[in-house]
Specification:
This protein is mainly alpha-helical. It folds into 2 domains: about 50 residues, no CATH class; about 60 residues, no CATH class. It has 4 helices and 2 strands, in the order H-H-E-E-H-H. Strands 1-2 form a two-stranded antiparallel ribbon. Strand 1 and strand 2 form a beta hairpin. Helix 3 crosses helix 4. The protein is globular, with a radius of gyration of 17 Å.
Length: about 120
């Protein structure tokens, strides 16, 4: 279950998020059902990738989030003309992305410290 990493790697190859998701899902066999559980959470076994359980609009919101970072608003008009629900969802995605980056940085620092014997 390395969906986020796989998608991140594919996003470096293409700036289109939807295309990156398709490539990552194909590469990791997300559409297949395995004989062994791919993920187990709290005693519940999942025999397919967890990305199969996400809401269909999730990819759209990720695309909108990427565009917002580039200064492109989701709807026409000013920031005050945007849907409050959409903007709240995009703020949540931004916060989650920042938290993931902080976690990745912590993990990289730990690896670096172990590598240098600290």
């Amino acid at each position: 279950m390395n969906c986020a990493r796989a998608i991140s790697e594919e996003t470096k190859k293409t700036k289109r998020y939807a295309e990156a998701v398709s490539r990552a899902r194909l590469r990791f066999g997300c559409n297949t059902i395995s004989a062994k559980p791919k993920v187990e959470i709290d005693g519940v076994s999942f025999y397919t990738c967890l990305c199969n359980f996400k809401h269909p609009l999730f990819d759209l919101y990720l695309e909108l989030s990427e565009r917002l970072e580039q200064g492109i608003l989701p709807e026409t008009g000013s920031i005050l003309d945007q849907s409050a629900r959409t903007m709240e969802a995009l703020r949540l995605l931004r916060r989650l992305k920042i938290e993931a980056q902080v976690q990745e940085q912590k993990e990289a620092n730990i690896k670096s410290n172990k590598k240098h014997g600290r």
